[in-house]
Amino acid sequence: MVSWSDGSDSSEHTRQCMSSDFDDGTIKVPASTEDSDFEGPEIDMYVLCHGHGKAAERRVAFEGIHTGRRFLCCAEKSKMDRNEECLMHSFNVHDLTQEKKKLQASYEKLVEDVNALMDAQEQRAVIERKDAETTKLQEKYDTLKNIAAAQGTVIRNMKLKLAEEKKNLQIHIDELKKTVEESNVKLEGIKAIING
Questions:
Q1: CA pair distance 184, 83, nearest whole angstrom
Q2: Which residue ranges make up each domain of the chain?
Q3: What is the pLDDT of residues 69-126, one digit of tens each?
Q4: Of 54, 82, 55, 64, whose CA–CA distance to 10 is shortest?
Q5: Hey, which residues does 27 pair with through a beta bridge?
Q6: CA distance 143 to 156
Q7: Which of 42, 56, 74, 119 could form a disulfide linkage to 47, CB 3.0–4.6 angstroms apart?
Q8: Contact between 48 and 22 (Cβ < 8 Å)
């Protein structure tokens, strides 16, 4: 490679990363680019590459302390580097596409799991409400059953008491009838004495 400065060789084709809004968060910035405004006393100079025998490309550096430095480089090597870079980008795109598909599948599975969990929670809430309603109904039923049992006991006790009072009243009535009959007999006796 032919350089216009006497500094170190800049044949390294390194990349520098910058943040971006792209999917993977970085974009690759090439170390150099073609310089369409290449000017200088050697503008008419035609330089051939020693390895391929083709015309060298005019480039300008993008990185570090070499930024803005103009140089000539092998067109074939530059083309191969660009092809390799395109291939690497296509591999990266393929990998990112596969990763996106996996993430999409994971996301869909997560959505299904969350929906299933929400459905299970709703069903559990419905069951808990039904259980609470059943418990309340059971409590009401038990209360009514106890009230009915208590009323039955009271009614039985009242019937027994009434039967006993009826029996006592019947005894009292019988005693009164007996007394009336005795009184009638005495009265008849008194009438017989008076009349007789």
A1: 147
A2: 1-73
A3: 887 777 777 677 778 888 898 999 999 999 999 999 999 999 999 999 999 999 999 9
A4: 64
A5: 18
A6: 20
A7: 56
A8: no
Instruction: Encode pLDDT of 147-186 as tens digits.
Output: 999 999 999 999 999 999 999 999 999 999 999 998 988 8
Q: For residue 161, give every residue at least 6 positions away whose Cβ sits within 8 Å of its Cβ, in sequence order, or none.
A: none
First-to-last alpha carbon distance for the chain, in angstroms, is 180
**What is the reported pTM?**
0.37
The neighbour count for residue 49, using CB atoms within 10 Å, is: 19
Q: Cα separation of 175 and 194, whole Å?
A: 28
Backbone angles phi, psi at 59, to 5 degrees: -130, 160
Torsion sign across C-alpha atoms 70, 73, 76, 81: negative
Q: How many CB atoms lie within 10 A of CB 92?
A: 13
